């Protein structure tokens, strides 16, 4: 049985690093595991211009603990008023790596998102032209559509249309949660890929309601039926280069989660690789983990593969019960549990 795994240092192709005290409290967890991170722009004041992105990038770099490194890859929050010229300049100058499409009001801090996809068509035109990936939160927002159907509906109502109108646009369908999305990705061209989170590989919608309502398992897109989880596990471990790692680690303080109207998102940065490895080992696919975690993402983004390596060993890793943030705390994914795989922080090959 494999006891040790040395792989090229992975990147996280979707993470929420937040700002202020929260950023300072959590960024080290991402930096410990990953070399680069695609940083989500849904701050309270969203990252809608190159100037905001540059300042935010500097705050992230300043918050990374001294003994660690992280290269933040910035994204632009697309709005109905996005300036296609600013997008183009931001990408050409290396400030932006991708543009993020949140349908308006789909999730946390998305009120400034896009009301109608046609409102960003000039930005999409530029992005297609310059090879800048579009990252999509793939859920429709119509309150009349069942929350468990919103991702599948997004494919039919929006994604197919965007692909038809911009056939060469690079698109990442983020944090997919359904068989519909996994099948769609497999059938689409090489410019369409998807990220899969560690948590959607580990639990289904029953877990959210096991013995009562469990807010720490609530995220968006919401976990679906077991059949969807099984298909996601097949997709992630299939060896297809169209799927890659994106944690969607999205911390909220305990008060914001354990509330009468709790926030969506779970913090998994303290156990992301351990959690993914649990899935890959259970699926007999440890030999395919490096491609999913470290190769497929850079290939899609046309970026170099990292030079550094990391080692994980099966020595057991107990995840903390809580992660302190100023005078409160976060309850992380797998809080207090011991997972089999542990990142060996003493070795950097
Ligand atoms: O669960 C989620 N949390 N989904 C998102 O799309 C946003 C995220 C957040 O920012 O908290
Ligand atoms: Zn996210």
Structural overview:
The protein has 12 helices and 15 strands. By secondary structure, it is of the alpha/beta class. It has a single domain, classed as Metal-dependent hydrolases (TIM Barrel), CATH 3.20.20.140. An 8-stranded parallel β-sheet has the order 2-3-4-5-6-7-8-9. A 3-stranded antiparallel β-sheet has the order 1-10-15, with helices on one face. The mean pLDDT is 96. Residues 16, 42, 107-108, 137, 219-220, 250, 263-265 line the site of (4S)-2,6-dioxohexahydropyrimidine-4-carboxylic acid (DOR).
Task: Give short descriptive properties of this protein.
8-stranded parallel sheet, 349 residues, binds zinc ion, TIM Barrel, binds (4S)-2,6-dioxohexahydropyrimidine-4-carboxylic acid, 3-stranded antiparallel sheet, alpha/beta, 12 helices
| Multimerization status | single chain
Unreliable stretches covering 5 or more consecutive residues: none
Count of the separate structural domains: 1
CATH superfamily: Metal-dependent hydrolases
CATH fold descriptor: TIM Barrel
Unique ligands: (4S)-2,6-dioxohexahydropyrimidine-4-carboxylic acid, zinc ion
Spatial order of strands in the largest sheet: 2-3-4-5-6-7-8-9
What's the count of strands? 15
- CATH architecture identity: Alpha-Beta Barrel
Topology, element by element:
Elements: E1 4-8, E2 12-15, H1 20-33, E3 36-39, H2 50-63, E4 71-77, H3 84-92, E5 96-101, H4 121-130, E6 134-136, H5 150-165, E7 171-173, H6 179-187, E8 192-196, H7 198-202, H8 205-208, H9 226-236, E9 243-245, H10 254-257, H11 272-282, H12 289-301, E10 309-313, E11 317-318, E12 323-325, E13 328-330, E14 338-339, E15 342-344
Parallel strand pairs: 2-3, 3-4, 4-5, 5-6, 6-7, 7-8, 8-9
Antiparallel strand pairs: 1-10, 10-15, 11-14, 12-13
Helix pairs in contact: 3-4
The site of zinc ion has 5 residues, from loops.
